[in-house]
Amino acid sequence: MRESSGQQSVPAWVQVSRGRNRLMRPTPDLDGRTALVTGSAQRVGRELLLRIADCGADVVVHYNESEAEAAATAAEAREHGVEATTVQGDITDPEAVDALFDAAETELGTVDVLVNNVGDFDARHWETIEWSAWRNVVESTFYGTVLCSRRALGGMRECGWGRIVNVGFADSDRMHTHPVNFPYFVAKTGVLMFTRMLAADTQDDGITVNAVSPFAVENTVSDVSGYPRGRPATFDDLAAPLLFFLSDGASYISGENVAVDGGRLPER
To answer: For the domain 29-260, what is the CATH code?
Structure first.
């Protein structure tokens, strides 16, 4: 009988399985990547950014007016052992978008991951919303997503790798048409259409473009008794599909939208 060398060969199927496990682990390895999350000084954007930092990415905290909060978020991100910086800018202004990306790239290099989180809303009946407020909702939610994505694409294409995740709204893929907060629903529907278009337009560039769409998140101030499962989504609920989309295991998934709504049916 042949003597054992002390080392056992690993069957091919086990090697493949181990490789798949690395790809499909719940948190992506973002070491060496730079992530920019719009509107990340506070609330949902802050929570998403900190979870990305926990995966090893250097992070860019974007704000428009909340300078102190942005600095505090950046400081907390550094506790995860990554680099962090803050950038200010109005994402509805093309020149301001160029400037904030220039600042981010100067500090931390090419933006590999972009999360388009900003989106103002106005929870009034559509007839009572002033035109300036209507425009603000559409421009911050939809135009801001387009402008930031367009600015990020050059660096991502040059690197041959990029991840864009847009924050939608759970009912927007169903053409939600409630008369209250209507401009927001219109803008979020545009975000999902843009997501699908951009996914197709970048399919040969090593870039994926997807969306995560909550109904309500835990910072929502509202009566939650009628929500699915009796609660809003937690920040971790929303971060779960986001982090999957950022992983190597999702490299063939693009143009998709995950509704984080607990199984809600708006027609019920």
So the answer is: 3.40.50.720
Domains of the chain, by residue range, sit at: 29-260
Tokens at 173, concatenated: 């893929």
Task: State the Cα–Cα distance between residues 231 and 239, nearest whole angstrom.
Answer: 16
Give the N- to C-terminal CA distance of the chain in Å, as an integer.
71
Calculate the dihedral angle through the C-alpha atoms of 155, 156, 161, 162, rounding to the nearest 10 degrees. Answer: 140
DSSP secondary structure letter of residue 231: S
Cα–Cα distance between 171 and 189 in angstroms, integer? Answer: 9
Other CB atoms within 10 Å distance of the CB of residue 18: 11
Rounded to the nearest 10 degrees, the angle between the axes of helix 43-54 and helix 67-78 is 20
pLDDT (tens digit per residue) in 88-130:
999 999 999 999 999 999 999 999 999 999 988 788 898 999 9
Q: What is the pTM of this model?
A: 0.88
